[in-house]
Structure formats: C-alpha cells, structure tokens
Amino acid sequence: MNESGGDSVDGTSADGTSAVDPLTGLTAAARAGWAAENRASAQRLSACYELLRECVRRDEAGAGHESRPGHSVVDPFDVATGYVVAAMAVSTLRAESMVSFAADLHQRYPAILAALAAGRMDQRAAELLARQMATVDPEVLPLVQQGVVDDYLAASEAGERLGAQAIRDAVDSIIARYDADGIRRRKEDASRARGVRINKGADGMSTLSATLATEEAAVLAEAIDQRAAEHAAADADAAAAHAAAAEAAGETPPDLGCHYSKAERRADALLSLVCGDSLHPGSPGQPPAPLRPKVTVIAPGNSGDGAGDGTGDDCGAQVEFTRTGQAALQALLDMLVTSDGASFEKVDPRVGAADDARRALKYRPSAELARRIRLRDGTCRHPGCAVPADDCDIDHVRPFDHADPARGGPTEECNLMCLCRRHHRFKTFSDWIYDLQPDGSLTVITPDGATMMTRPSGPLGAYRREHARNESRAWDRQQQRNPDPTTTSGDTRSEPTYWTRRASRLNTERARTTGTATGPATGPDDTRPAAHSRWWQRNAPVTSKVELDVRALLDDILDPPPF
Fold first, then answer.
1. Beta-carbon-side half-sphere exposure of residue 225 (alpha carbons within 13 Å)
2. Rounded distance, CA 517 to CA 507, Å?
C-alpha cells in the first residue's frame, strides 16, 4: 500500500479488494460497440437484399409474356439502388456496392453473413473474403467459404491480427485445395481493371490514379524515383553553390526553402517524365513536348457597347480546367508562359444565354447549348450519381413533343439536364417525378413520396451560386444601411450629404499628403500602406513583360472591344 492511502502497485485498493483498470472497461465497451456495429451492418444488408427482391418481384409481375429472360426495360437493380440512395443519403456507387454485396452474401456466402450477424466479423473483412472467393466454382464454394470463415475467426479470436495481404494469402491457400483454377480466373478478371483515372479534388488539387500490372508499376516506380533523385541532387548542388557564393562574399548562406517531401518530389518527377523537362540534368537537349492547355473562362457577356450584360455582375472572371477543376489566375499565367499555346473558351454565365427560339423547336440542342449544360451540371443529375457530364446524355426534363414541338418540352437550358445512359432510361420509363428549376436545381420525387434534391456541380453552376451569394450579401448590406427606404417616419436613418462626403474626401487626401488632418474625417480610413512601409517594399508586386502580355491577352478575351 502506498503512503497516500490509495491503490497499491499490484492493483488492490485500500480496502483489500482488487481494482478494475479503467482501460479494461473502456476496451470492453469499444469491443461491444464494434460487435453491435457489425450486427447492424448485417441487418442493413439484409434489408437491402429484401428491397432488391421486392423490386425484382414487381418487375416480373409487370413483364409481358414476350419479355426475354434477363432483360428489363428498367433494371430492378437500378430501382433498388435508387431507393437506397433516397433512404440513406449515400452516393449511387456506394448504394450499388451495398445492394450487390447484400445479394452476394445471401446467395453465395451465407457463412460470411452469419459471422457478420453474430458480430464476430466486420464488413470490411467480409468484403475482402468475398472478393477473394468471387471466382470459386459454385460446386465447391460451400466448402471453401466455410473453411475460410472458420480459419479467419479462429485466428482473429486467438489474438492474431493479420494484414490485408496476409488474409488474401490465407484465403488463396484454402481455395487452392479445392479449385486452383478459381485463382487463375480471378487474376484474369483483375487484368481488365487496368486503367488511369482523373478526378477533381478540392482546394485546387486533383487526383490522378492508375491501376497497372505489377511489372508495369515496378518499371514506372523505378523511373519516377530515379528522376526524383536527379532533381534532389540538382537542388543540393544549387544550394551548395549558393552557400559557397554567400560564404565568399562574407554573407549568411540563404535558405532556399527546398524542403520537399518524397511524395512531392515524386509528383514533380511524374510531370517531368510525362510533359518533359527542359532543365532536366543530363538531357540531350531536345525540347519538351508542347503544352496546349484548354482553358474555360466564365465571365459576364458583353453587349458590344461596353455596358456588359446589364445585370450588375461583379463576380469577376473564373478560370476553369473542365477536367480537373478551378485554377488560380497566377497558376494559369505561370502555365501559359511555359506553354506552346492555349485554347480559350469563354462562357456567358447568364441563364438562357445560348437559347434560340427557332432551335427550341428542334430535338437536338446546338453544340453551344449542350456545352453549357455540361458545364453547368458537372455530373449526371440523378441523385447520388457521379458519372462525368462529358459521358452523359442531354435529356429533356419535360419530354420533347415530336408531333407538335410548340406544345411543350422545348430544347432550352431550363428544360435540359445531364443524365448517364442508365439513369436516362430510368427517368424515361420509371414513374419517378423530375422537376428542374431555372437555377439548375433538380427535385426528384419517388413513388412512395420521398423527395431528393441535387444542385449542379459544374463550374457554371458554381459560378452562378457564388453570384447569387454576392447579391444576397449586397442586399443585406443595403438593408443594414436603411431597412425600409420607403418609410417617412422619424426612424429613417440620415446619410451624409454630397458636401459632407466631398469635405471628408478632401480631408483624407490632405492627411495623406501632409501627414496631419485639418479636421475629423467622416469617411472610411485609407488603408493603403505608407511609402516607408517595409511590408509594402518587401511585397511590392513584380511585373514582367511576359505577364503583361498574357494579361493583355486575357483582357481581350474577357472584355473584347465594342466593335
């Protein structure tokens, strides 16, 4: 027992009873929560499977006698996925994975489902085991899956913690006893997943991912690491040269700030390998591959008289790379300096700017109108779907009347949206209701009354939302200055007259010139830095002829002369 009268070091309390370590209770609570989560996952997947069965039953009940087996006007799987998206607020891809995995568990892997429902296995492990057994012969699958589940649970509950690769190896060793060809078939299927994908990210970043054969990835990794090492050596040589020059001049060696991580150097090396690098050490001197970026500039229209579009849009221009997202203007300027040329596409953000009364009576939209719809929507507009707009159909929300186009369903921006081919068919042949608003917001109502809404995620839609927010803030500022301009009561706020504003402006200018004020200033303070400010001197903008030429090019594109 310690001198303070507390618990002793051997875990006994002052009264002689054994004390329970709080970590033991917390660990048990975490374990109980983990098991409950696993049971809840099994319950959710079972409900998804029953939902799929009901959708299949209704489809079979409504199919005619001439319907081909395995064919359907509206796939019951898509219907079930749509209901899962409405119920759980998940993406279409995740809902598809959920419904597909639920069907596999109930139809192919009941042993995995039983372990999940008992709380002994989590969903990620269940998915890993199911993927490894995807190509096993159905005749031996019951034996294989029971052996796989028993082996996994025995190792897990004995305290063995296996990584993903170790689990795969253990599963393959069991599969090899019953169906060695199943492993070969799985590897053949995996080779079809080979590809490169580019996804828009956030904060000015994008994701480039590649699925390659092992030997291809090994060669690429060696090339990237070699180029990264060459860049690191060149940076070290440059830093040493600067340090030697500073030491010879009796100055402090400068800190060049080249503290790159390995991942950052690999990113630079990848760009150098793909796009070329004129500064690459030891290069034979051949010029890098020419870069000709495609840039979309979203800016208000010009009526030709210098008055703009008359809407008071002061959001400014937005630079967008439609495949990877929005970019900063300075990044664009830096890229254009090193490019062989560029193609600029200017888009007027006004709603209906590309509509034409004559083409509204034709089924096919013009190329300009179709481009605007894709720039507005960004992806398929069905709730939860993320298929890029460039891979989608342009669909009429209200069906186009081919017999009498004037009766409705016009080919105009307010009646067009992007839908992937699968959801295009789903909308056409299902009884779900779609309602598109002028700002691009889409409301979808399911037959059971559930309501979902999606907003356009493309650069044009984002630009319009930002403009709407700016207008809302401007109105709020106006209301703060004078909540009700029409009132004539004594509550009306007074505002400075012209002469008061003029005197305040002159007083501010005199104070800036002489450093002393002649009277109290009633206007806003001048926040520009003084001539002797060190911050201003350090951060004074540096302009170059190339930058001025590029800015002049952008000015001509964004604000052409009125002739």
1. 6
2. 7
**Across-strand partners of 199?**
207
161 in Cβ contact with 169 (< 8 Å): no
Question: pLDDT tens, 419-469?
Answer: 999 999 999 999 999 999 988 999 999 999 999 999 998 888 888 888 888
69 touches 52 (CB < 8 A)? no
Q: Which residues contact 218 (CB under 8 A, 6 or more apart)?
A: none
Q: Report the Cα 449 to chain-centroid distance in Å.
A: 29
Closest CA to 269 of 259, 281, 257: 281
Three-class DSSP category at 340: coil
Q: For residues 102 and 126, is the Cβ–Cβ distance under 8 A?
A: no
Single-letter amino acid, residue 520: P
3-state secondary structure at position 232: helix
Q: Which amino acid is at 117?
A: A
- Give this prediction's pTM: 0.71
- Smallest Cα–Cα separation from 167: which of 148, 185, 184, 191? 148
* Secondary structure letter of residue 61 according to DSSP: H
Q: Report d(CA 388, CA 380) in Å as an integer.
A: 6
Inter-residue contact 111 to 104 (CB < 8 Å) = no
Predicted local confidence at residue 538, as pLDDT: 42
* CA 3, chain centre distance (Å): 60
What is the number of alpha carbons within 13 Å of residue 38 lying toward its C-beta? Answer: 22
User: What is the DSSP secondary-structure string of 107-127?
Assistant: HT-HHHHHHHHTTSS-HHHHH
CA distance linking residue 99 with residue 84, whole number of Å:
8
> Would strands 294-298 and 343-347 be described as parallel, antiparallel, or unpaired?
parallel
The single-letter DSSP state of residue 413 is G
Query: What's the distance, Cα to Cα, between the start and end of the chain in Å?
Result: 96
8 A C-beta contact, residue 129 and residue 103: no
**CA pair distance 174, 151, nearest whole angstrom:** 9
CA gap 397, 413 in Å, rounded = 10
Instruction: Find, among 315, 316, 425, 429, the residue nearest to 380 by Cα.
Output: 425
Residues linked to residue 208 through DSSP beta bridges, in sequence order: 198
286-322, pLDDT tens digit by residue?
Answer: 555 556 666 777 766 544 344 344 444 445 556 666 6
Cα 191 to its chain centre, rounded Å, is 27
| SS3 state of residue 325 | strand
**Tokens 């001198």, residue?**
3
Q: Which residues contact 444 (CB under 8 A, 6 or more apart)?
A: 382, 383, 432, 433, 434, 435, 451, 452, 453, 454
